[in-house]
Amino acid sequence: MMVKLTSSSLSLKLSTLLLLHLPSTLLLSPSLIPFSCLLLLLLHFPYSLNRNRKHKRNRLKRIISSTASGMGSDDDDDDMDVDQANIAGSSSRKRKRGNRGGGGKMMELFEGLVRQVMQKQAAMQRSFLEALEKREQERLDREEAWKRQEMARLAREHEVMSQERAASASRDAAIISLIQKITGHTIQLPPSLSSQPPPPYQPPPAVTKRVAEPPLSTAQSQSQQPIMAIPQQQILPPPPPSHPHPHQPEQKQQQQQPQPQQQEMVMSSEQSSLPSSSRWPKAEILALINLRSGMEPRYQDNVPKGLLWEEISTSMKRMGYNRNAKRCKEKWENINKYYKKVKESNKKRPQDAKTCPYFHRLDLLYRNKVLGSGGGSSTSGLPQDQKQSPVTAMKPPQEGLVNVQQTHGSASSEEEEPIEESPQGTEKPEDLVMRELIQQQQQLQQQESMIDEDEKSAAFEIAFQSPANRGGNGHTEPPFLTMVQ
DNA sequence: CCGTTTTAGAGACCTCCGCG
DNA sequence: CGCGGAGGTCTCTAAAACGG
Fold first, then answer.
1. What is the pLDDT of residue A422?
2. CB-based contacts of A55: which residues, under 8 Å, 6+ apart?
3. In chain A, which residues from 378 to 417 place their CB closer than 7 Å to nucleic acid strand C?
4. What is the pLDDT of residue A136?
5. Burial annotation A88-123 (CB, 10 A radius, 16+ → b, else e)
6. How far is the CA of A351 from the C1' of C16 (A)?
7. Tens digits of per-residue pLDDT, A437-476?
8. Where is the Myb-like domain positioned along the sequence (predicted)?
9. Nearest residue to B13 via alpha carbon and C1'
10. Which of A99, A114, A450, A468 is the most buried (most CB within 10 A)?
């Protein structure tokens, strides 16, 4: 009876302990599994006692006593002890002696075992929590280090940007002073640009995007100052109209106009490698207009036109376009013819002017009297608004400045007429180059007398450094500060 | 998406006219 | 009469438009 009570109370304790601790114990420590199996086996005993009380009471006593004696020496042999107790019925007399006081020992034994389990589990929980805390601390340390690195990087970038901005500002100042010295005019800088304080910080993605945009300018692209358009227009390249040697102006142009020529050469390289087809590529037409308009002043006298077209053909061949003089002359007449035809008919042309990209150039040439009565065309068919007096054709530098400011997107209706039908936003780089060339030629005639040779060459260099980098839409910055470097 | 049709741009050639 | 410029016309071609 005492054994029964003891067993039932012990089973209650063990079941509670097992419910509380056994799952985690089993999970955390595989070495404790045999011991847990023993506990489960012990939980089964009350049912057995209830079923066969009379028959199995002695048997239970034997089992418990044998188990207690066996577990004292070796925990691993618990199952074997139970089986041995069941089997060894013949040696019951020996085991009766050892049965006295077995309940108290078992209690102590199981309590000790439970305590061990709980201690082990607590130790494992502590180590687990310590590991978690350690990992969390490491993660926080890494985050802190990364934040510090990011802050340092941003600070470095900001500093570099500030330095670049300062350098470009100093270059601008030097160039503007030089231009003022050359031209004798005081340059009115746009207040938003001249007095613009540097922004406190620009996010790096925007800066990198802007730097990557202009393909030809590398170091100057950071300056991002449309200011540079002003000196470009006030400094004039000197293609001398009355030069004794007809070939030299083109050579000079090609030497001192590296970027536009490079552009055109790149554009024409794939075309010029092959014999020129019947169709004139756009770059070729533009080159023809450029050459023809550039030679116009030299052939206004009694010079035979055959020489002119031979020279143009030679220049075209130098640029990679294989066109003979007859073809050049024919093409020139055709484009003028078509231009006038369209102008007379007032036909609505598509704004993109994809098929006739040189219209605005011709428009400008006619308007500026670069192409006057000669040049394979007459102004008889032109609309009246395109006929201007030579006074308006020879614009002072300030008008050129206005023109370029329009080119760069600033809205100004002061010009007598929009340059052409195409909006400013769709203008292409070569168009800008051509327009600048024309304006430079006009302004040159005015300023030739007041510019000595050294200043002229310097101005020429400055002016021709930039046009190809100005981009077509006015969004890219004109990096004319290449000359400073 | 693909084939066909339409349309405008452009090349080539010719003729006419003015001028020296 | 030769030369240069202008005008006209034919033809080709590429892009746009359109329909199945």
1. 36
2. none
3. 378, 380-381
4. 85
5. eeeeeeebeeebeebbeebeebbeebbeebeebbee
6. 15
7. 455 545 544 443 443 333 333 333 333 333 333 333 333 3
8. 278-336
9. A330
10. A468
pLDDT digits (tens, 9 = 90+) for A382-412: 333 333 333 333 333 333 333 333 333 333 3
- Structure confidence at residue A361 (pLDDT): 67
Residues sharing a CB contact under 8 Å with residue A369, sequence separation 6 or more, in sequence order: A388, A390, A393
Residue A175, pLDDT score: 65
Q: Give the CA A336 to C1' C3 distance in Å.
A: 20
Residue-level pLDDT at A78: 38
Tell me what pLDDT residue A386 has: 36
Residues (pLDDT < 50) of chain A are 1-61, 63-100, 189-276, 347-355, 372-433, 436-437, 441, 444-485
Is the shortest CB-to-strand distance from A331 to strand C under 7 Å?
A: no
CA–CA separation, A238 and A235 (whole Å): 9
Q: Where are the domains of chain A?
A: 2-100, 237-450
C-beta within 7 A of nucleic chain B, residues 318-357 of A: 327, 330-331, 334-335, 338, 342, 347, 349-350, 355-356
Bases of chain C within 7 A of a CB of the protein = 3-8, 14-16
| Nearest nucleotide (CA of A352 to C1') | C15
